[in-house]
Design brief:
Strand content: 5-15%
CATH topology: Rossmann fold
CATH architecture: 3-Layer(aba) Sandwich
Radius of gyration: 15 Å
CATH class: Alpha Beta
Distance between the termini: 24 Å
Largest sheet: 3 strands, parallel
Number of strands: 3
Structural class: alpha/beta
Number of domains: 1
Number of helices: 6
Amino acid sequence: MGGFGALHIGLNHPGQFGALASTAGGVDPRDYEGRWGLDKVLGDRRQNASFWDSMAIVNNLDKIKASGQALFIDCGLEDFFLTPNRQLHQALVKEQIPHHYLEMPGGHNWQYWAKSIEYQLVFFADFFAGHNP
């Protein structure tokens, strides 16, 4: 859960991270109950519904807005995480939260990630150079 983890950790430590990026992130774990050991980490979804809800990045827009962190999100057009990434992007647009969003051909695999990292490196290089990415 690297893309999700990057956003989750960054949003919960805004003083440590000025820019956040997610590549093909599982930005809404609620859609994936029972997979990848999420139940072991987040508990039973029915018993811990509010905790599961709080983990969805889309439910943390207030943190994103308040932090002012630069944000980059990308996802492959054939990735099984595409829909929640699009939903997050649409919510960010609706709330007028500045961010960069990119969709490119590819799935949830190394071929896609190797391509997307180039865009992420440009984003972070611009951020650290003092440009508003």
